[in-house]
Design a protein that fits this description.
mainly alpha, about 0% strand, 2 helices
């Protein structure tokens, strides 16, 4: 197997198995990102 072919197969396998978390996803990280963008401290509500 060629070196490049093996590399591409490993990258595709990793991409299929890895879960991507975006900074604007719902939750505390989103609140922090918005607060940082606005230039104020994040206020988190707790149940």
């Amino acid at each position: 197997m060629k070196k490049q072919s093996r590399f591409i197969k490993s990258v595709v396998a990793t991409a299929k198995s890895a879960e991507v978390t975006l900074p604007f996803a719902r939750g505390a990280r989103r609140a922090e990102t918005i607060a940082r963008r606005k230039g104020q401290a994040a206020i988190l509500k707790r149940a």
